[in-house]
Amino acid sequence: MYKLFLQPLLFRFDAEKAHYFTFDLVKFFFKIPFFPTIFKAIYQYENPALEKTVFGLKFKNPVGLAAGLDKNAVLVDELSAMGFGFVEIGTLTPKPQPGNDKPRLFRLKADEALINRMGFNNDGVKEAAARLKKRNSNVLIGGNIGKNKVTPNEEAVNDYMICFNELFDVVDYFVVNVSSPNTPNLRALQEKEPLKDLLQTLQKDNESRPKQKPILLKIAPDLTESQLDDIIEIVQETKIAGVIATNTTISREGLQSSEELVKEMGGLSGKPVTKRSTEVIRYLAQKSGKAFPIIGVGGIHSPEDAEEKLNAGADLVQVYTGFIYEGPGLVSRINRYLAKK
After folding, report:
1. pLDDT at residue 111, as a whole number
2. Which of 23, 30, 179, 198 could link 220 by a cystine bridge, Cβ 3.0 to 4.6 Å?
3. How far apart are CA 181 and CA 115, in angstroms?
4. Quick one: average pLDDT of 217-238?
5. Is the confidence at residue 341, as pLDDT, over 90?
6. Which uninterrupted H or E stretch holds 223?
7. Mean pLDDT for the stretch of residues 37-55
8. 320 a known binding residue?
């Protein structure tokens, strides 16, 4: 139904406008009596075989929504009804910011991919925290945190700490985003020493609290094996909970779309990143001896794609671009497929 009717309609419009239109549409329909119940009956699939405990949290299924779709936590309850085992909000920054100039989101239909250079556009962490306090669903929530564009890297730790404190009581786990290519110099924080300092600061605060929250690190697919070795060392040294592999790529290798689209600046997601994301997951899992959990994300458009990530060493998976191309039925298809394994 989605791919036959709704997707072709939405894809006729500018990608970012279609995104907000879809959000408004979902909000509208979920206010209609009985619609949420019918929607859940169609898209939610529950099976005890899918339940999994990872970094101390019990997930009803291993399929989550990656950060970026619901940056401001405005659709958490509705997304829960779509069958996700967990929903990651953000990336959030201390102060609201508009992000980069539009247009900044592009569909590469021939590649079933997206290029985005959104630039951490969000309403600010306080606004998102206030919304999460009012939510009705009990789906597990991840808080993806970053720094404001105007904050120099030398002061970045303060931004991450502000977000950590604001969200601590309303999310179930945290994701430190230093791997987006769309905030100037952000990826420099992936270098060994600044990254270690940032994670140690967060973890020290975390350990001082009566109940700790898992902290994960989201990494880029463009890291070298030497850099991945550093990531393994840093995760083990700082004792954070795990890694999310991977964010979007700056590579444009092997794309079939027009040169005009391919040359757009930003992070590429979707099918073109499938292979590299899986390679990073496999490398981290094998080189570390599965020393920490991994959430696999990048180019999951089918149940088989999800299975490939899990077989490579991921404990959980997340979808984003595949969800946009395939629709909400993707979550149910993945879960039904995995339940039979």
Report:
1. 98
2. 179
3. 11
4. 96
5. no
6. none
7. 96
8. yes
Give the total residue count for the chain: 341
Contact call for residues 27 and 70 (beta carbons, < 8 A): no
Answer yes or no: is 117 a known binding residue.
Answer: yes
Choose among 333, 315, 341, 302: nearest CA to 243: 315
Q: How far apart are CA 90 and CA 145, in angstroms?
A: 6
Can you tell me whether residue 141 is helix, strand or coil? Answer: strand
Question: E strands of 168-283, at which residues?
Answer: 173-177, 215-219, 242-245, 267-270
Please name every residue paired with 176 in a beta bridge, in sequence order, or none if there are none: 145, 217
Q: Both ends of the chain: CA-CA distance in Å?
A: 26
User: Is 278 within any annotated ligand binding site?
Assistant: no
Of 4-18, 96-110, 277-291, the one with minimum mean pLDDT is 4-18
122 is in an annotated binding site: no
Would you please indicate which residues are annotated as catalytic (active-site) residues? 180
Instruction: Please state whether the predicted TM-score (pTM) of the whole model is above 0.85.
Output: yes
73-124 residue pLDDT tens: 999 999 999 999 999 999 999 999 999 999 999 999 999 999 999 999 999 9
The neighbour count for residue 224, using CB atoms within 10 Å, is: 8
Strands 113-116 and 267-270: antiparallel
Query: DSSP assignment of 52-100, as one string?
Result: EEETTEEESSSEEEPTTSSTTSSSHHHHHHTT-SEEEEEEE-SS-B--S
Cβ atoms of 66 and 320 within 8 Å: the answer is yes
Q: Give me the pLDDT at residue 4, please.
A: 87
> 284 is in which domain, residue-wise?
2-339
CATH of the domain at 237: 3.20.20.70
Number of domains, the chain: 1
DSSP 295-315: EEES---SHHHHHHHHHHT-S
